[in-house]
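Narrative progress, year one. The postdoctoral researcher (J.K.) led the effort to move from monomer predictions toward full complexes, under supervision of the PI. The following entry was the first complex the group processed end to end, covering 79 residues in total.
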Amino acid sequence: MPRCLICGNTTHFGSSQCPPEVPEANGPMSSLMANFDQEGYLENMESIGAEEEISQHAWEDPQGYFDLCLECGSNNIQW
Ligand SMILES: [Zn+2]
């Protein structure tokens, strides 16, 4: 399962391959965000402008896409 090595978050991750459409200081860090369950499985995904194709690939290969901790902003993620 994904785990942030900085803050220990295991549930909320984003993808650096999907930058936010409109960068905002306090906005989301990624246009593709995912929630993982306690077992490390992808529970649901939220796309706010990410391309459909990328969303599909991310769903099939979350490990290859979700590399940003949405809790602390770190990209120090261990799978
Ligand atoms: Zn973190």
